[in-house]
Design brief:
heterodimer; A: about 350 residues; mainly alpha; ABC transporter involved in vitamin B12 uptake, BtuC; about 0% strand; B: alpha/beta; Rossmann fold; 6-stranded mixed β-sheet
Chain lengths: ~350, ~260
């Protein structure tokens, strides 16, 4: 039986997911091919990071390699899961996910152009170009998807599909003229990876995620009302067109943020919202914080597997999220189905 | 007492022909009034214009002498509740959650529903007989149950006027009667104004104090059912031959199709 959604319950569930996130983070920090055991890792954490000269190998691995990477994974996962919740609510479509509205196509084109032109060697060019691509896609979809003064879910979806298809064609073109070495880079990016953690300023990224989450959280109740239909939401006092624009912009920016630095990591934005919904119900005041934290924890875990399951090699994290995500999602879907009927 | 009045309301959708043409009427919000008319006569559009969801191209809708167009959406939702034709729910919400959504226009942006809101929602569920399945998912309910949940949500808004769009479409006669009996009770016991669009002439004639007959975007007739529903008028407006009967001294007409 589902309980009422009260402030206490939201706080309690959020706290549980926060604890889960921290536990996953700690386990992830202690896992890897470098051979830092948990006790050792915790001990060095307690000591704090000493001056450069005095740092042990363990401490360097922990603070300069694993910690940034884990935090980066957490931020990307949280951004994708939050964007997934926003898009599913905006489009009122359970199959909606952060990449459905063309953002991924734009970001991928930017990244591919960076690689194909050979500029990707400059460390900031690829994220900047893919961010520019993502924002271009977002603007295109908004302009095309808007009919008159209204943002129609079906038109948005179609616009997203078309923009994605168009960018895919351009990506194919660049792939066809790229060298073998470039092709490898491109494929690696397209499959999604978190290896660029050391290139980004995590504090800035976290601040942007936090700002996006606050915007999303402010729309939690309108999102609930929207799931009854736009008309009903309007009858219940929601300024529907304004809310839809806020949802579109917030969801798109969060997606752009994640995609620009980490490539296309699928499934997080699709399955995390559904997992949380199946267990805790559809109220967005609970769903948003829970999905945000759970998405972060999930990607940290997936990335840990990606970087440690094959010795001295790294799987693209997108492969791991899809491999774990798809079957688990099927299981939840079947379970939910049998519970309803 | 609250008065809703429409003054020369004209409306057309962008680029389309006029759907409502110079509609003027006055409605004391303690009555049970029905809006009838053929398909495409503008009934549903009229409801949306009254609620302020659609702005009249000309003319105005006044609730207690305030133009609805100047009132913010939350405040409108505290005065007027709408029970729309059933909308599909994409994500699972329970009956209690749906009814509690009726409290949204009374709450601040980040506020959670308090005990008072839950009490109001509970009373609304009791009133409409949906309390026994408060914890069930909306999509598990039958059409008649769902309709009563939507009415409960409207009651939770604590409005002064409820607009209903085809409340008995798809319902069998038992639920048709349940829903209309409930509306009459709400009107009689709580002085709640009811304005229901319906296709069912007999239900409208049986339950409503007064009827408005729309035809091609204009008011063709309004008044007590006996004055509005006559053989000649129905034949003209609906382009259908009917017989209108009165049973055992009742002043409620009954429309019978002829073949």
């Amino acid at each position: 039986m589902k309980q009422d959604v009260t402030r206490t319950r939201v706080a309690a569930v959020t706290a549980c997911f926060a604890v889960l996130f921290v536990v996953v983070l700690a386990l992830s920090l202690a896992t890897g091919t470098g051979g830092v055991d948990i006790q050792g890792a915790l001990a060095t954490v307690r000591l704090g990071f000493p001056d450069d000269g005095a740092a042990t190998v363990d401490q360097v691995i922990l603070y300069q390699v694993r910690l940034p990477r884990c935090l980066f994974a957490g931020i990307v996962g949280s951004a994708l899961a939050t964007a997934g919740v926003l898009y599913q609510g905006l489009l009122r479509n359970p199959l909606a996910e952060p990449f459905i509205l063309g953002i991924s196509g734009g970001a991928a084109l930017g990244a591919v152009v960076a690689v194909a032109t050979g500029l990707a060697g400059l460390f900031w060019v690829r994220p900047v170009l893919s961010l520019a691509g993502a924002l271009t896609a977002m603007a295109l979809v908004f302009v095309v998807g808007r009919s008159g003064t209204t943002l129609r879910p079906t038109t948005l979806l179609l616009a997203g599909v078309i923009v994605n298809a168009f960018f895919s064609a351009l990506i194919m073109f660049f792939i066809s003229i790229s060298t073998e070495r470039q092709l490898h880079d491109i494929t690696h990016w397209l499959m999604g990876n978190l290896g660029s953690a050391d290139l980004v300023d995590l504090r800035v990224l976290f601040a942007l995620l936090a700002a996006g989450f606050v915007c999303a959280w402010a729309q939690a109740r309108p999102l609930n009302l929207l799931s009854m239909g736009e008309e009903t939401a309007g009858y219940l006092g929601v300024n529907v067109e304004r809310v839809k624009i806020i949802l579109f912009v917030t969801g798109s920016l969060l997606t752009a943020l994640a995609v620009a630095f980490s490539g296309i990591i699928g499934f997080v934005g699709l399955i995390i919202p559904h997992m949380v919904r199946l267990v805790f119900g559809s109220d967005h005041r609970l769903l948003l914080p829970a999905a945000c934290l759970f998405g972060g924890a999930f990607l940290v875990a997936a990335d840990t597997i990606a970087r440690s399951v094959v010795p001295y090699a790294e799987l693209p994290v997108g492969v791991v999220t899809a491999l774990c995500g798809a079957p688990f999602f099927l299981y939840l879907l079947k379970r939910g189905e049998s519970r309803i009927s | 007492m609250n008065v809703l009045s429409l003054k020369h309301v004209t409306f057309h959708y962008a680029g389309g022909p006029a759907v409502l043409k110079d509609i003027s009427c006055r409605f004391e919000a303690d009555r049970f009034r029905g809006i009838i008319g053929p398909n495409g006569s503008g009934k549903t559009t009229l409801l949306k214009v009254i609620d302020g969801m659609l702005k009249p191209r000309r003319g105005s809708v006044l609730f207690d002498d305030r133009d609805i167009a100047d009132v913010n959406r939350s405040e409108v939702a505290r005065m007027i509740a709408v029970v729309p034709q059933e909308g599909a729910l994409v994500f699972p919400f329970t009956v209690a959650e749906v009814v509690l959504m009726g409290r949204a226009p009374h709450l601040g942006r980040f506020a959670f529903e308090g005990k008072r809101d839950r009490d109001i929602a509970r009373t609304a569920m009791e009133r409409t007989g949906v309390l026994p399945f408060a914890r069930r998912n909306m999509n598990e309910l039958s059409g008649g149950e769902r309709q009563r949940v939507l009415i409960a949500r409207a009651l939770a808004q604590q409005p002064r006027l409820i607009l209903l769009d085809e409340p008995t479409a798809f319902l069998d006669i038992k639920y048709q009667k349940t829903v209309f009996d409930l509306l009459v009770e709400l009107n009689r016991d709580e002085g709640l104004g009811i304005l229901a669009v319906t296709h069912d002439l007999n239900l409208a004639a049986l339950y409503c104090d007064t009827l408005v007959l729309l035809s091609e975007g204009r008011i063709n007739a309004q008044g007590p059912p006996g004055e509005v529903i006559t053989e000649e008028r129905i034949a003209r407006v609906y382009e259908t031959e009917v017989r209108v009967e009165y049973n055992g001294g009742s002043d409620r007409p009954r429309v019978i199709l002829r073949r």
